[in-house]
Each structure stands twice: as structure tokens, then as C-alpha cells.
Amino acid sequence: MEKPVSKKILCIEDEPFISQLYSRALTKAGYSVDVIADGKEGLSAIQTNSYDIVLLDIMIPQLLGIDILYELEDSRDNIKAKIIICTNLEQDEETRAAIEAQADGYIIKAEITPRQLVEIVNQF
Amino acid sequence: MTGEGLTKKAHRSIRTFVYILSLWNVLLMLLIGSLLYFYTSVEPGYILIGLMLAMFITSLIFAQIISNIVVKPLILLTNTVLHLSPHTSNVAPAELGTLRVGKELVHDLTQHLYDFATATSASTATAVKESSLEISDILLPIIGLDKNGTVKVYNPAAHELFSVEAQPLDQQLDSLLDITLPNNSIGEWLRTVQDSSVNAHNIWRKCDVKPTMGENRNYFDIAARYRKDHPSGIDVIMVLSPQDSVFEAENTALGLIALAVHEIRTPLTIMRGNLEVLEDEALSNLTPEMQDYLKRTSAASQSLNGYITNILGVAKAEEGQLTLNLSEESWAKVVTQIVQGLQERATTRGKQIDVRISDGLPNVAIDTISITEVMTNLIENAIKYSPDTAPKIKIDVTLDKAGMVETKVIDQGLGIPDSVVPNLFNKFSRNHRNSAHITGTGLGLYLCKAIVNAHHGNIWVSSKEGQGTTIGFTLLPFDKLADSDSSSDNIIRTKHGWIKNHSMQRR
Predict the structure, then answer these.
(1) Are the C-beta atoms of residues A9 and A24 closer than 8 Å to each other?
(2) B40 inside 8 A of chain A by CB
(3) What is the rounded distance in angstroms from the CA atom of residue B199 to the CA atom of residue B84?
(4) Would you state the pLDDT for residue B483?
(5) Chain B window 465-504: which residues touch A at a Cβ cutoff of 8 Å?
């Protein structure tokens, strides 16, 4: 399913091989993609409120993905972006509950290929 | 009354009753015999035969009555003993009101038994009191409660646990400690044993204990002993055994596995992504032989992902952290999707999967992610253990006689030796005859059993060496599930993770 080019995606991921794979697949599918490898910069970028979808890794330098969610807690309703956690880390129940409350999706990266990621993003 | 007196009283009661019944029997026979002889023309011989028959019948009736009279007190006395025993629970005390004969005797005996039980407890307490051992000498926290759950005795270790400066005497235990037991609370257990027992004991493992006035949370095994109306006033004695080091070690082990899994998954993510790009964009440029190599590499990376998931799943299952989110699903649809996802892996190995699903199957209660792991493991095994000469793998889905949805994965492969079958679902179980040339961790079936059992289903195997193997499991239809978990209604869970139903409002 083709998406309009105006849909903007922010990929906050510090592993360049993975961010390149995702960026390549999403761009081919018609999305505009920005990649940030730093948690603090990623939080600032989300707060500009100019993205439609955010792919957020958990284990990123400077500020963890889960901490970004906590920082956004109060202003969450003012941010239009759908936030999808993309991680390979298994969560304890407490963290998982916190993520489910704040995020719009949760993906285990090793379980999906770039094509499957596009299919998931297309649902948002 | 002394024992000898009670025995004599018992003998007298039963003797008296037998005499009365016998006299009654004889008088009745004389009366009937006389009436027949003097007022009828029946021959004396026949009268005699009739009387003997009547005596036989009445004797049977009286024997039954006497037997009831003797047995009933025995039953009541047995109940009393069981009620007093700490090893039996939920045995109600004897109800003497149901006795018509020997009530006083049984009452006396019952009272003696209760007095004996109480005296035994009191003598034990006296022995402890008279010894040089004091509970302050014991390093484990010890707490004594009265029948209302109020602290009556404690040692320094327990005082440290309460984290209060003041004396905790005469305070309710639950105002001092927040204790989370595996299945119920201390208060609930106390109420249960007070209603049904004179002596009781219980042990709870890995209980979460936190002082109400403090922050530190620790883990203990708790042993409690209850004695009804103990002369000391202390009906409950509790001993707490710290388990923090054990719990932390277990948690550390799981944490290490989760970390290792995370590290392995990162290069695996890159491998799978790059392989997909090559398959999508470079496959047509390759020779058929090279295409096969690429497809096999892709299939192998999926298998590797499966092994990693198994290892993590087993670690979680062993720590009781296997979380299931049951939801109503069409099993036919789920099976079809799973098989579609595995077809390429099967085709790469030269195998073919045929699926037969009965019509009209009820929806099932499943955690889709974990059940997918089960099906993936079973189908992967069938692929691995089927030779090139027997490429067909069948999947049959039917409703069994008990109304459970039964799924069978059937191969015509190597089969399993009889000696291996009993241990098949154990951890690290592998058939050593082919383990040298067929890879595997020995964890897959162990995990399948844990997941299926957690779904209230059963898993079984039927195999003949050299002819093939059938592994089947059952799933509960959704309408048989007592309480469905609707806490995550707006979350769509998939193998890859979950997404919120985006038509719902975000919280």
C-alpha cells in the first residue's frame, strides 16, 4: 500500500546498519525518513512535533528510549506522532507496562525484516 | 472418669442393649407362637418353622441396628482424631448430636482426646521454657501471634525486620509487615485454620516482605505453626528464612540470559535485513545454485532466531515469568498463517507441509506469540527429522471427544526410540543417535510443554522408529475459559510485538 510522501518518520537508532536498512525500506515505500543516533537529540526532535511516526530504540546513548517516554509523559497528548518502540531487549513486567501505557507499538527487531517493518508502519 | 470406668460403662451400655433386644426377640416369638397355636389350626411343626424364620429375619434387623450403634461412635471418634491432627485439614469436629446411644461415652472420650492434645502442646512449651534455649539466640526472625493476629512475642531479628523503634508488642502483624504470600495472606490462612483445625502448619516459598514503615523489600520462605487456644496465648509461631541471595541469583541468571540474547539479536537483525534485501533485489541476478545458497542462509537465520527465542522462553518459564495474554482467536486462521510463514523454510529443505483443518472448530483461548513458538518448534522438528525420501509433513486440526481443539504434527521421518520417548519433553533431551548430524538445543519440546500446559492443554507424542512421529497438543476453546483477560483489549499482539488498535483514543 503506497503512503503519501508527506508522512515523516523519525528513526532513533544508534546501530547504523539497522537504521540504514529501515531508512532504505521506508524511503522506498514512500516515506520521508530522518535518522538520529542520540537519545537527547532524539527527544528534542520529537518535541518539534513535526513527525508522524517515531521508531524508538531503547538502548541508545545519552538518553534511553524508556526515559524519552517518561520525559514525554506530560506533553504526550500534544505530540501527534505515533511512537513505536523497536528493541531487541526483553523487558521486565514493570517496564513493559510503562511502555504499553506510553507507546503505540512495540517490535522485537530480530523478529522482523525491513519489509515487515514497512507493513507494520503502514498500519499507522 | 478413669479409663477403666469408661470401658466398664461402654460394656454395660452395649450389654444392656443386647439383652433388651434379645428379650424383645424372645417375647415377640412367644407371643406370635402362642397366638398361632391357640387361635389357629396350624400344625405345631409349621409354627416352629415359621417362628425360626421370623427369628432369623428379626436377628438380621437387630444385627444391623447394633452395627450402626457400634460403628457410628467409631466414625465420630475417628473424625475427632483427624480434626486434631496437624497433617489433615478441613475435617470438621465430631457432631455428637447425631448419636442416640452411647452419647455420654463418646462425649467423654472426645473430651479426653482434646485434653490430651492440649496437654501435649503445653508440655512441649514447658520443655522449651525450661531449656536454656531462648528465641533471642536464633538468628532467623521469629514472631508469635495470638488468635487475633496480634504480635505477642518476637526476637531481635524480627524486631529488625519490623524497622520500628518502638516495641511492636500487641500490634497487628499486618500493621508492621506487608507480606505477599504466593496464594493468599497470613490473615486468610489464619481464618481458615481457626475455622477448621486444632493443629495446622504451612510453608510459603519466596514471599515478598516489606516493613510498612520502611522501604526495603526482601524475600523470605515463611513457616507457620498454628495451635488452637494454646495455654501460652500464642496460637501462631512464624519463622522467616531469608531468600534474597537465592532470588537475586535467579534474577541475575535470567538477566544475564536476557542480556546475551539482546547482544546476539543485534547482528541477527542485520543479517536477516541484509538477506531480505539480497533476496528481493539480487536474487534474479544469481545462478540457481547461488539462489539456493542465499535461500538456505535466510532459512538458517530464521532458525537461529528460533533457537534464541527458545532459550529465552525456557529461562523465563523456569523463573515463572512466562507471561501469557490469552485472547479469543480462530485457530484455523492462526495455523494457516504460521504454516505460510514456515513454507519457505520447508521448501528450502525439500519438504512439503499439508494442512487439514476440520470445519466448525470453536475459537480458542491462546497467547498467539507463545503458541506460534510451539507450532514453529514442532514443524521445525518435523522438517529436521524427515529424510528426503519422506518429504510430507501433515498438520491435522480437529475437535477431540473432550471438546478440546487438537492439533497433530505428523511426519514420516526417523521416529524416536522407545527409550527416548519418556524423557522427550525434558530439558536438553535429544536422541543421541542423530544429534551428531541434526542440530538442536534440546529445549524446544521442553518449552512447548511449558507453554501448552500454561494454556490448560496437554501435549503428547506417538512414534515408531523408522516410521515417523506424531506430536499432538490440545487447546482450550475460548468459551470454556472461565475468565477472559480483557485488560489489553485494544492491543493487537503479533509474533513481532504489539501495536495499539489505532482506532482507539490514545491515553
Answers:
(1) no
(2) no
(3) 6
(4) 46
(5) 488, 491, 495-500, 502
